């Protein structure tokens, strides 16, 4: 008898399972719209020029491989916080932002979950939007928080259920934690407007809720890192204390390098130091200290004005290519194939993903008949579309809908 004979087989990861099916498919027309990673106009992974140049600089500097401190590369975390909160940020300029390097966005969320589970003085319940990124729920449960939901997406309008969202936040027990996607909501591609963010900020203040921002796509929504940071900066300006998880996976294309940051805004420098010390106590027994290379890449880009300009252009280039694919797909479905249904949301949604409104059955048909792979909730990664495959994709959607 094996020690593990009672371990049941778990279900496969829904997104990575799609990649498996895609790889096994031998049809030349196959398209993978499942994974949320940017692809260039030839459907290939894209290493940013800013990243290549940063790596040249790092190689030439012949750095050693010593351990980083527990909270990571200090110059990187400082620059990451500046990118998110803005150079003018009051807590940042008062040395009142506690920040640690993290294992990309997921690791940042996990440190945040663990910190809140241990030190948050209110109810240890976190409200997630419905739907949310699939990893949020297990991640926060494993961190020791109770997971609840608030309304977010309205299937009827294929847009934001703003009334439902406000009602649910107003009905949440005072002091609850609320997870907010800072921009480019995954999986829906539906974000609140700036006016709606201002109202959400007011409700959160009124109910003394605690906002936890997940910012995995800064720059990817609008093409501007400043514009995409609106919600976080607005909340801080309104006097909220926030938690923030940042990822450099998408906006620098550093997926596998696992570069991210977690931060908390605090009252003043003295409080920041206490919070810092407790972040270290959480990180040390988890993984001791974070990896070196990716943090150096991101830091070189963020601290070198020339590379920063190159990077800004590339972020905009990625966002613009995605936006152009939205316009082309909308055109093809409405005027080209005259596919039944309303497709305006393809153009109005933003970020990496579009929630097409395709039903599970139609998604299955697309995979089986057309070799087009996506998640069964009808979400497609817009970055998987390009000039070579978009007509075939539109034609396949048309066939699946008709
Ligand atoms: N949050 C959201 C909403 C995401 O979509 C993702 C990536 N799919 C992440 C966090 C974390 O990604 P990573 O750990 O690769 O930075």
UniProtKB/TrEMBL annotation:
Catalysed conversion reaction: L-aspartate + 2-oxoglutarate = oxaloacetate + L-glutamate
Record flagged with keyword Thylakoid: no
Class in the EC hierarchy, top level: transferase
InterPro entries for this protein: Aminotransferase_I/II_large, Asp_trans, NHTrfase_class1_PyrdxlP-BS, PyrdxlP-dep_Trfase, PyrdxlP-dep_Trfase_major, PyrdxlP-dep_Trfase_small
Enzyme Commission number: 2.6.1.1
Keyword Iron belongs to the record: no
GO cellular component: mitochondrion
Domain (Aminotransferase class I/classII large) ranges: 29-396
Sequence intervals crossing the membrane: none
Subunit structure: Homodimer.
Alphabetical list of PANTHER family matching this protein: ASPARTATE AMINOTRANSFERASE, ASPARTATE AMINOTRANSFERASE, MITOCHONDRIAL
Protein name: Aspartate aminotransferase
